[in-house]
Amino acid sequence: MALAIVALMAILVSATLITPIIGTEEDLITMSFDFAYPFLDLVLFSVAVLGLAIFFKGNLGKSWLLITAGILVDATADILFSYTTAQEVYYSGHFIDLLFHFGYLLPLLAFYVHTKEL
């Protein structure tokens, strides 16, 4: 199940990012990083989904749910950042920056919830 979710997300990310990133006049290194961040986020998300599936019924279920949600928000932010950068519409202070902050706050909340459950 987790593999199917990640495979579907990888197809969606590829379909969303290939045309705008290839269409830019960036160098090869920049284009590879524009692809690498979203795809490596998907790898991290797949591991988090497996951890969530294992620990969901136990004491760590709420914490893993928050960690997985944080990784998903961060992956979404990376995808949107790559897309808006390729379209040259990203600016400092864009709403995507808030997604990065929420993506970092959710795992912190997970650690707090975990310490309260112990």
Explain how this protein is built.
There is one protein chain. The model has no long low-confidence stretch (mean pLDDT 90). The chain is mainly alpha-helical and 118 residues long. The chain is 82% helix and 0% strand. The protein is flat. The chain has one domain. It has helices at 2-22, 28-55, 61-86, 96-117.
Tell me the helix content.
Answer: over 70%
Q: Spell the H/E element sequence.
A: HHHH
The class by helix and strand makeup works out as mainly alpha
Estimate the strand proportion: under 5%
Instruction: State the end-to-end CA separation.
Output: 30 Å
Report on the biggest sheet.
none
Task: Give the integer mean of the pLDDT values.
Answer: 90
Task: Give structural attributes.
118 residues; mainly alpha; 4 helices; 0% strand; flat
